[in-house]
TrEMBL record:
Residue numbers binding NADPH: N55
Main subcellular location of this protein, as a coarse class: cytoplasm
Transmembrane segments: none
Catalytic activity entry: L-proline + NAD(+) = (S)-1-pyrroline-5-carboxylate + NADH + 2 H(+); L-proline + NADP(+) = (S)-1-pyrroline-5-carboxylate + NADPH + 2 H(+)
Protein name: Pyrroline-5-carboxylate reductase
Gene this protein is translated from: proC
Binding site for NADP(+): I6, G7, T8, G9, N10, M11
Length: 264
């Protein structure tokens, strides 16, 4: 099985890294193209994959082809490779906004497509990916695609109408969580903690809290209540966060994020 990437930037690197690390496809069977020499060299040095400047070469050689360019470059990239893409190949897309209907129209022929939305924690094997296969994807293809996508974290098949919500809640959300960690650390620094130590404390608190949600399956509100002692420190922090519109800010940010995803 040969795996190809068109665009060898951040997400492509995270995805191929997970797949190689899990031993699902060896580096020698992975080929990537990028218009930037620096982008090609980066993944070649880091993962030992084959690289080329020719997108068509990747489209011709790959059994599974990941389109890992920015959404703005999808149309021109598909235009460039559409003649090389065969019916027995599988195309995996990772861009927000690019619907299965739009993708099928761009290829102009029956193509097996799995539309996905991954996220950057894939880099450390803790990604969250949503997958939507189109009607041409067989059960065998789907099982293999899920195996690949599961190499760098969790993966779930979702109906396509949910994908903009996925962009908001997991595709883009690492950025908001990093902002939260940064802000938490700033607060600790303001209280006298050295910065490096503050990042460690903040990140481990977020990591542990996320693990509690996943492992206990308790309502996040119940877990919050477990931290809040009567007349204690936490409820005072919760009061100030509510006053500042903390939860509403996150909800509104996700609505804006999903809106842009729909418009791309
Ligand atoms: N960064 C993230 O957190 C996530 C990104 N995505 C999606 O993944 C895709 C890639 O994003 P990133 O890896 O972050 O971007 P990136 O900018 O790191 O990588 C894109 C690569 O594509 C190359 N490229 C541009 N035009 C090209 C062309 N015509 N032919 C070949 N290569 C070309 C660029 O030189 C660059 O190396 C985007 O569609 C993005 O929306 C999805 C989920 C999360
Ligand atoms: O910001 C973006 O457009 C991409 C999609 C999801 C995360 N990053």
């Amino acid at each position: 099985m040969k795996l190809g990437f068109i665009g060898t930037g951040n997400m492509a690197g995270a995805i191929m890294g997970g797949i190689i690390k899990k031993g699902i496809i060896p580096a020698e069977e992975i080929i990537g193209s990028d218009i930037m020499e620096t982008g090609r060299n980066h993944v070649k040095e880091l993962y030992g994959i084959q690289v080329t400047a020719d997108n068509k070469e990747v489209a011709e050689k790959a059994d599974i082809l990941v389109l890992s360019v920015k959404p703005q470059f999808y149309a021109e990239t598909i235009q460039e490779i559409r003649e090389s893409v065969r019916e027995d190949q599988m195309v995996i897309t990772i861009a927000p906004g690019k619907t299965l209907a739009w993708l099928e129209e761009q290829f102009g022929k029956p193509v097996r497509i799995v539309r996905t939305m991954p996220n950057t924690p894939a880099l450390v094997g803790e990604g969250m990916t949503a997958a939507c296969p189109n009607q041409y994807v067989t059960e065998k293809d789907k099982a293999y695609a899920l195996k690949l996508l599961g190499a760098f974290g969790k993966v779930e098949v979702v109906p396509e109408h949910m994908i903009d919500a996925v962009v908001a809640v997991s595709g883009s959300s690492p950025a908001y969580v990093f902002m939260l960690i940064e802000a938490m650390a700033d607060g600790a620094v303001a209280e006298g903690m050295p910065r490096a130590q503050a990042y460690e404390f903040a990140a481990q608190a977020v990591y542990g809290s996320a693990k509690m949600v996943l492992e206990t399956k308790k309502h996040p509100g119940e877990l919050k209540d477990m931290v809040c002692s009567p007349a204690g420190t936490t409820i005072e922090a919760v009061r100030v966060l509510e006053q500042s519109g903390f939860r509403s800010a996150v909800i509104e940010a996700e609505k804006a994020c999903a809106e842009v995803s729909r418009s791309l």
